[in-house]
């Protein structure tokens, strides 16, 4: 199914924990394709220390500048980004996940963990780890807890790169969308989709 024919999945919800490259790219896809998406982030992304010369398609960009553009993009596509709200616990419930933050309690059908190299929430949730001490996921980024995904630095011992984190987020989101739709989902757009997707934000 292409995004052009995507149905409204606004009754389905995902909570993304962590708003670095991995978490924001997961949020971009789920929000763009109609899933109610909430992102909690404490703004300690490593990107603030980085300058990218190795991100395909971008010659050179400061890490904080990259994050500012990414945040604007997920906001424009409809994600609810709760900047500065730390998640303190994630638990499985009968029909999804309960997420506790410093400010409140939330529920969602799916959860995407994207807390960088900090794996504490994955451990608390009961996700299996590999012998190397990272969260065990496959190429779809789903953990051993059904409906819970782990992305970015937490799933690799090293070899940490922004492009890899971004790819992890996309893989998790597409797997969630495929699960929701009951068939493999493609977020494919063509030039004629520009005004539908971006509305008045579309570039000339
Ligand atoms: C000095 C330095 C230079 C680098 N240079 C490059 C480079 O040139 N090119 C490149 O590709 N990569 C570079 N990297 C690596 C790149 O920054 C990482 O690969 C990337 O940031 C990992 O993305 P992530 O989303 O997994 O985690 P992060 O970017 O670390 O994001 C995790 C986010 O989760 C938030 N968070 C954590 N716990 C919670 C919680 N409980 N509740 C809510 N939010 C939470 C954090 O505040 C953070 O914002 C560099 C890294 C460093 C340190």
UniProtKB/TrEMBL annotation:
One Pfam family matching this protein: Pyr_redox_2
Cited InterPro entries: FAD/NAD-bd_sf, FAD/NAD-binding_dom, Ferredoxin-NADP_redctase_2
Key words, A-Z: Flavoprotein, Oxidoreductase
Superkingdom per UniProt: Archaea
Gene Ontology MF term list: oxidoreductase activity
Domain FAD/NAD(P)-binding, first and last residues per copy: 13-117
Stretches of the chain forming a coiled coil according to its record: none
Gene3D superfamilies cross-referenced by the UniProt entry: FAD/NAD(P)-binding domain
PANTHER family from the UniProt entry: THIOREDOXIN REDUCTASE 1-RELATED-RELATED
Protein name in UniProt: Pyridine nucleotide-disulphide oxidoreductase
Organism expressing this protein natively: Natrinema salifodinae
């Amino acid at each position: 199914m292409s995004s052009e024919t995507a149905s409204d999945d606004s009754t389905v919800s995902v909570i993304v924990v962590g708003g670095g490259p991995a978490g924001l790219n997961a949020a971009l896809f789920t929000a763009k394709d109609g899933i109610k998406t909430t992102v909690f982030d404490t703004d300690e992304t490593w990107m603030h220390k980085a300058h990218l010369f190795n991100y395909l398609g971008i010659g050179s960009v400061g890490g904080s500048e990259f994050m500012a553009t990414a945040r604007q993009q997920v906001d424009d596509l409809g994600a609810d980004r709760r900047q500065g709200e730390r998640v303190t616990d994630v638990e499985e419930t009968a029909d999804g996940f309960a997420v506790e933050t410093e400010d409140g309690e939330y529920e969602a059908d799916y959860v995407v963990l994207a807390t960088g190299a900090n794996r504490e929430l994955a451990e608390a949730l009961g996700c299996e780890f590999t012998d190397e001490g990272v969260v065990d996921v496959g190429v779809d980024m789903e953990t051993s807890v059904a409906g819970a995904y782990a992305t970015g630095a937490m799933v690799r011992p090293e070899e940490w790169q922004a492009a890899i984190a971004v790819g992890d987020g996309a893989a998790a989101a597409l797997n969630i969308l495929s699960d929701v739709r009951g068939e493999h989902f493609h977020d494919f757009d063509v030039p004629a989709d520009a005004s539908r997707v971006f509305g008045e934000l579309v570039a000339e």
